[in-house]
Amino acid sequence: MKRFILSLYPTTKLWVVAFVIISSMFIPGYLYQYAIFPVCLLIAMLAGKGGEFFSLFMKAIFTIIIFIFVIQGLFYPGTTVLFSWWIFTVNMEGIVYSLVLTSKIVAISSIIILFFRITKTKDFIYSLEKMGMPKKVTYVIMSTLQITPQMKELSKTIMDAQRSRGIETEGSLLIRAKSFLPILGPLVLSSVESSEERVLTLESRAFSAKVKKTNIYSIKKSKKDYWISTIFIILIILLAVRGLIL
Question: Number of C-alpha atoms within 13 angstroms, CB side, residue 243?
Answer without folding.
Answer: 13
